[in-house]
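Good morning C.,

I know you're traveling, so I'll keep this short. The sequence:
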Amino acid sequence: MTSFQSVAQARDDVVDVYFFHSKTCPHCLEQKPLMTYIDQHNKNVEVTSLEVNDNPKEWQEFQKARGISSGAVPRTVVEDKMFIGYSEAEGPLEYIPVHQGYIGYKNQIIAAIETAVGSPINLPKTDQTTQQQTSPPWQVFLIPFWYLCSYPFLKDQLEKRQGKRYWIGGLLATTIISLFVFLALTPDAVIKTFAQGLPFPLFVSTIALADGFNPCAFTVLVILLSLLTYTRSRKDMTLVGTTFIITSAVMYFIFIMLMVLAGSVFLENYGVRFMQILGILITGAGLINIKDYFWFKKSISLSLSEKQQSTINKRAGKIVRNLRNAKGDRKMFLAALAGTVLLAVFVNIVELGCTAILPAVYMTALLQYCSDTIGLCHISWTALYAAIYIMPLLAILGNFIYSFKSTRLTENQGRVLKLVGGLFMLFFGLAMIFKPQLLTLG
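The tokens, ready to paste straight into the viewer:
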């Protein structure tokens, strides 16, 4: 196998294949024997190998020359095709924008070399054996199971509410750790096959609905509805409440589409690095929300501040006063609706810290699902996301109009919502960092 050269002259009778790898990469070590064999037993194929950590300058030169921003290895280059990763399992020729290359299925790498050569190549006999699928390590889930079994023995010590929260936190920690040990030990091909078997509409619906159960949005709507009881008019409540929710949906749609537009640029230019940075931010937000389950609004919190809640109260109060003073005055009523729209716009801007995290997960999966230029595919799915997002708010409004009273969100309910949202964020944040294959849905 020859050493890497920055400038290689292509020869008519030889196909040049470039293999970029790392000594610390298990997939590289798995692929290297195959590339060595192909190089040594095929006179019309020359494999140029580069260990990226030992040759950072040459690796950067190659990235720059090919316009590659992703530093993922192994990377196999066969003429105009670049393959990322390596899997013994057979798979289709599938391009992944985040990695700026095709998935490195062995059969596709060999097929690309044979197409370039124009005839079959010599392969080691061991490579023709049937691949054995490693069974997923289900036994790791015995850890949270045994932890759960400890509850009857600790029941007396867990009578206090905070003590019970700590025990629940330990259960969640062991469950999450077990889940990621499970994912780490499961072959990438199995994970990708599972992810691609999941319907994308199910993913969108689940993320959007989880996003909709948002303590910030709930708090604002409940404040507005509580004040609207003074109007004594179900018609006014319905119009104002619906205006607030629809405006929130439109604002959310615009916000996510802007995120998709920006994300497509960063994902194309920075690939895996952008995915990892986004994963770190989402993981951090998830941990903050989980923290709020134990220590509500202590230290850093992704919740509305007292000042923001006070401002929202004042704006909602002004809307209610306009409605009460309208008494058939169309201009006053329209002013109240306009105030509702402005309140919804203001609320959706100030609560971005509460709501921007799960849309980032959705944005990343959407850009891989709709791999073409931003268009109808992205718009349609985002519109569905926004529609599902407001369903919990519509349910609150419907209950309010029916019962003619509003129930404020209790602290315990807020803690639970923070916990559920935090777990979603933590799971997908870690997946973005360590197992981005999970986001290649549908």
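Safe travels,
E.
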